[in-house]
Every structure is written in C-alpha cells, then in structure tokens.
C-alpha cells in the first residue's frame, strides 16, 4: 500500500509560506533566463565573480540586517569599509605588519560604531541622522589620511594577500569566511538569548524595557557590531585588491540596505533573517551581472537598482500596514 504524499504537501506548503521562497524562485528564474540570454552567464568564471562580489558585501549585510532588526539603520557602512582599508593600508606603509595594521583598522571601525551608538543611545539622536553625519565625517577622514591619493599596497606579503585572493581546495577563502559568518550569526539570531533581545527591542522598545531588557545597551552594541563587520569587509577588500582608494565604497550603503530590506528586514524593526538578507544580496549580484552582460549602460544600472530598492521598501510598508 502506498502512503499518501502528506509530507511533500506540508513541505511545499511550508516553503510557500516562507517570505524567502519568492526570492529563491525569482533568483532561479532570472538565472535560467540569463543562461539563455548570454552564453557567458553560466560559466564558472562569471559565477565565481558573482560569489566573490556578494560574499564580501554579504559580510556587511549581516551587520546591517541585525541593526535593522533592532530598529536602526547605518548609512555609513560604505565609508567605514573604505576607512578600514585606508587605516590598515596607512599603518602597513608606516612599517607595521599587515595583521596588526588590520586589527587596528577593524578596531578603528568599531570605534566609529561606538561613536554612533553613543549619539543614538546617550544623546538621543536617531540612527538615520547620526549615520548620515558619520558617513560624511568618515569619508572626510579617508581623504585627509590619503590626501586624496590611492595607496598602493603591492608589497603586501603573499600570506596576507591569500585572504582575498587565495583558495582552499578550489574554494576562495573569501567565500569560506563569508559562509562561517553567515552560519554563525544566523544561529545566534535563532538560538542565542542575547540576540533574541534584538528582536524584542526592535518589535516594541517600551515593552522590552518593562520586561527588564536594557534596550540602550542592545542598540549600542548592535551599532558597534555593524561597523565592526564593515571594517572586516574593508580589510578583506584591501587584501583582495592590494590597494586602498579614498573613494571606495561610495554608494555601497544602497546595495547593503536594499539587500537587507529585499530579504525581509523591516525598516521599522523587529523582523528580518540573515538567510533572507543573503538572498537579497545574491539577487542584486545576479541583476548587476545580468545588466553588465547585456551591455546595459552604467547609468541605467544605478536607476534599476534604485527602482528595486523603492519596490522593496514599498512592499515592506504595505506588509507592515497589513499586519497592523
């Protein structure tokens, strides 16, 4: 006797109920369509380039997603990525070994997050205004440190360059680092009590305070975390390209915020998943690669990305209204 396919139905039902299910279907459909539209899309070279691209940005997306869940936002992530590159590169050119220089760079990035966290939690400013000011200040620091001139770091030792350029059994180290960070923070958000406070604070800050959660501390450390991960991404970029350009990362915050929101992170806080955010950055990477292969003008590319972000924010707004 053949048992009825109850489990299959339940699995499909659960998959369809996932907010990420739509993203998965869209990404797969776009990949299939581009495989027919361009013979270069499905090649290993292009796939590897896409994986390398969104892996480093994906590290920043993880921090942004956690910050959005707590009810904040960081417009300075692109500047902080550049800041880490510039600080690490400058320290190396001054004679420090690259490992120590990069630890200092990541620490400096964390201090930027601590500064923003101070103005948000102690002074009482909102994340938007604070991070907007930090974006301009940090970008200015990059220009001051480099005097507007890119730093050439071709003398970096091979073992350090291997972080951004090396492979382990054919898999780039960048992708391995990215996967480890994604798995770690996805687990922490789902299982760790400390990270559950992030959801409680973002969902209803007053109720969280009444239940004994120190919401200011939660918001402060999440802001620091976002900047720290941006600093880590900056160090990896420096290792990959062997240079530090003071204008690097301009507009990166658009991709990062768009990816997190497309993946289900709410701009009002209290909702979001690491898995969804990674799907969001993967979708944007596929879209960017598709536009390049189809020879679409770079000006149209920016407009299309902006439209995708607007659509994602609009969908998020209507979903929140419906829940209310």
Automatic annotation (TrEMBL):
Keyword Cell membrane: yes
Membrane topology summary: Multi-pass membrane protein
Keyword entries, A-Z: Cell membrane, Membrane, Transmembrane, Transmembrane helix
Location within or outside the cell: Cell membrane
The keyword Transmembrane helix is assigned to this record: yes
Protein name, entry field: ABC transporter permease
Lineage, opening ranks: Bacteria, Pseudomonadati, Pseudomonadota, Alphaproteobacteria, Hyphomicrobiales
Residue stretches spanning the membrane: 21-41, 47-70, 75-96, 102-125, 132-150, 170-189, 220-238, 274-293
């Amino acid at each position: 006797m053949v048992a009825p396919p109850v489990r299959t139905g339940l699995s499909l039902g659960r998959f369809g109920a996932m907010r990420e299910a739509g993203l998965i279907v869209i990404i797969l459909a776009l990949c299939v369509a581009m495989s027919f539209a361009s013979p270069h899309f499905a090649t290993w070279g292009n796939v590897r380039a896409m994986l390398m691209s969104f892996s480093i940005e994906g590290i920043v997306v993880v921090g942004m997603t956690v910050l959005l869940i707590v009810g904040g936002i960081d417009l300075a992530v692109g500047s902080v990525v550049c800041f880490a590159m510039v600080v690490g590169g400058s320290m190396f050119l001054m004679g420090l070994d690259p490992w120590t220089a990069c630890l200092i760079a990541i620490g400096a990035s964390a201090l930027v997050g601590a500064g923003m966290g101070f103005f948000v939690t102690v002074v009482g400013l909102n994340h938007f205004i604070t991070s907007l000011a930090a974006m301009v200040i940090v970008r200015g620091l990059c220009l001051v440190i480099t005097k507007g001139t890119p730093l050439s770091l071709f003398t970096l030792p091979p073992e350090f360059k291997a972080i951004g350029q090396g492979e382990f059994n054919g898999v780039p180290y960048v992708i391995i680092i990215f996967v480890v960070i994604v798995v770690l923070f996805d687990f922490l958000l789902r299982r760790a009590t400390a990270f559950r406070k992030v959801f409680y604070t973002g969902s209803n800050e007053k109720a969280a305070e009444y239940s004994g959660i120190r919401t200011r501390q939660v918001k402060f450390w999440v802001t620091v975390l976002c900047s720290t991960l941006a600093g880590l991404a900056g160090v990896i970029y420096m290792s990959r390209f062997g240079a530090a350009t003071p204008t690097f990362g301009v507009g990166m915050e658009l991709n990062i915020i768009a990816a997190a929101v497309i993946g289900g992170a709410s701009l009002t806080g209290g909702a979001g998943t690491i898995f969804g955010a990674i799907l969001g950055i993967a979708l944007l990477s596929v879209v960017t690669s598709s536009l390049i292969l189809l020879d679409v003008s770079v000006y149209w590319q920016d407009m299309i990305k902006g439209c995708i972000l607007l659509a994602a924010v609009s969908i998020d707004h209507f979903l929140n209204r419906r829940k209310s």
